[in-house]
Design brief:
The complex is a heterodimer of chains A (371) and B (78).
Chain A lengths: L2 H25 L5 H14 L22 E8 L2 E8 L8 H9 L4 E5 L34 E2 L3 E4 L5 E2 L2 E5 L2 E6 L1 H4 L10 E3 L13 E8 L7 E2 L4 E5 L5 E2 L2 E6 L2 E4 L13 E6 L3 E13 L1 E5 L2 E5 L2 E6 L14 E4 L4 E8 L10 E6 H7 L3 E2 L2
Parallel strand pairs in A: 2-3, 4-13, 11-19
Antiparallel strand pairs in A: 1-2, 5-6, 5-9, 7-8, 7-24, 8-12, 9-10, 10-12, 14-15, 16-17, 16-21, 17-20, 18-19, 20-23, 21-22, 22-23
Helix pairs in contact in A: 1-3
Chain B lengths: L9 H14 L6 E9 L2 E8 L12 E2 L2 E7 L4 E2 L1
Parallel strand pairs in B: 2-4
Antiparallel strand pairs in B: 1-2, 3-4
The chains are: A alpha+beta (371), B alpha+beta (78).
């Protein structure tokens, strides 16, 4: 194929196939190998795109997996092919490889390259030249200054969650997110460090410290919870932007307009920006939802008075890592704090998202929204 | 003669929700009981983590308020 075709195909497959596969693989961590194999077939057969996500959870519960597939362009007798480099022989026969081969109409150059080390010697370099190989990381998974609504954040011992908004309590300024993002499900100690970007996104301690967790609503194991919320005091010298809703609607910025009405009705349109799925639109499917049972690491916890949201079109409203996202209504007023979700249900079958009404969040955390 | 149902106000739906919480208390798989709308009117929504055991009868209406049951699967923190 021609160079442009090979490059175009590479970009397309990287986005549509390889990134979701990496996510899929990361989601299967902790499950048995046999589950992993059968899920591989099912997922690729269904052709469902899977968001690039991991739920906000303690880091020590997430085993590391090696990067396993790289795509590029290889030159072959004056023609170009899709170059596929895999690190494990088992991947050569995988559903992922079959899909890549089919998409490239057989014009693939597959090599097993084994583990690639930063300090690999020239002798061990790739067997044929790869001309381009870049994965675009969205802004909300990067180091973002000033701190922005929607960006990756987390306690040093948590994978990754999302910055909800900026608030005042007393004389100090805080960033708002969930307890399970900033206070590690009550495991944190007041004053623990908060990183932006979060550890899972490559956030380094101490160079990416931005705040210290100060206050959170304890997660109760008996009786009803209402809020999964925490505040982290922003370090001196760290800038933040309390009003910009970056790329919220059709890729265009909006401004946060304050706090919306206490009542959120079924059918209302809402939006959010999150660390995993970026900006998405949704529709409220239920409110005043009680007995919501959420499977935390510390056990099944009950939430009352919650809001339920489905994604619009064919997309989910949220995925793992979007915890803490601020949900705004069509007037760009704060409506709720995203904290949980499932993969089934909703009129598009892509799952439902659950959120704490923002009035209750701000009241319980004795905070005032900045905007 | 066709019976004309009175409009389901939010108050009536809230009352029916309370009854639904009692009725569904014994169903292990309930992971949410709230308010939604069906055909423009308020209704009760009951979320289940999985299908109920065969033979289990679930109400479709409580005191004239429609009930919508949906299998939402398990819910995890995100």
């Amino acid at each position: 194929m021609r160079l442009e075709s090979a490059r175009g195909l590479k970009q397309q497959l990287l986005k549509e196939v390889v990134e979701p596969f990496v996510v899929w693989a990361s989601r299967l961590r902790g499950k048995t190998a046999s589950t992993a194999v059968s899920a591989a077939g099912a997922e690729s057969a269904a052709g469902r795109p899977i968001a690039f996500g991991v739920s906000a959870r303690p880091l020590d519960t997430v085993p590391k997996i090696p990067r396993s597939v790289a795509l590029g362009v290889a030159r072959h007798q004056g023609e170009y092919k899709l170059a596929v480099r895999v690190q494990r022989p088992s991947l050569v026969e995988s559903p992922l490889m079959q899909h890549l081969t089919r998409e490239a109409k057989g014009e693939v150059d597959v090599r097993i390259v084994g583990r690639i080390d930063k300090r690999a010697s020239a002798r061990r370099s790739a067997p044929s030249p790869i001309l381009a190989d870049a994965v675009v990381i969205p802004w909300y998974q990067r180091n973002t200054r000033p701190l922005s609504i929607g960006a990756s954040v987390g306690h040093v011992d948590v994978t990754a969650g999302t910055i909800s908004a900026f608030v005042k309590r007393g004389g100090a300024t805080y960033l708002l997110s969930n307890n399970h993002v900033l206070a590690n499900e009550d495991q944190a100690r007041a004053g623990d460090r908060i990183l932006q970007r979060a550890k899972y996104d490559g956030g380094r301690d101490p160079s990416e410290r931005v705040a210290r967790v100060r206050f959170w609503i304890k997660l109760k194991q008996t009786g009803a919870n209402f809020v999964d919320g925490a505040l982290a005091e922003i370090d001196k010298g760290i800038a933040y932007d309390a009003s910009r809703l970056r790329g919220l609607v059709n890729g265009e910025d909006r401004k946060l307009m304050g706090v919306g009405p206490a009542f959120t009705d079924e059918g209302e349109m809402v939006f959010k920006i999150g660390r995993t799925t970026g900006s998405t639109g949704g529709r409220v499917t239920a409110f005043d939802l009680d007995n919501v049972v959420v499977n935390y690491d510390k056990g099944n916890l009950r939430f009352d008075g919650q809001i339920e949201i489905e994604g619009v079109g064919n997309a989910a409203f949220s995925d793992g890592g979007d915890s803490g996202s601020l949900i705004v209504n069509a007037r760009m007023e704060a409506a709720a704090l995203l904290f949980a979700g499932g993969d089934s249900g909703g009129s598009n079958g892509r799952g439902l998202t659950y959120a704490n009404p923002i009035h209750r969040v701000l009241k319980d955390l004795k905070a005032t929204l900045l905007f | 003669m066709k019976r004309v149902m009175p409009l389901v106000t939010l108050e009536r739906a809230q009352a029916a929700k309370k009854t639904a919480q009692r009725l569904f208390e014994t169903v292990d798989s309930v992971v949410g009981v709230g308010i939604t709308r069906l055909g423009g009117q308020y209704a009760v929504k009951v979320n289940l983590s999985g299908p109920v055991a065969p033979g289990t009868e679930l109400p479709t209406e409580i005191d004239g308020v429609p009930v919508r049951v949906e299998v939402t699967g398990a819910i995890r923190p995100r």
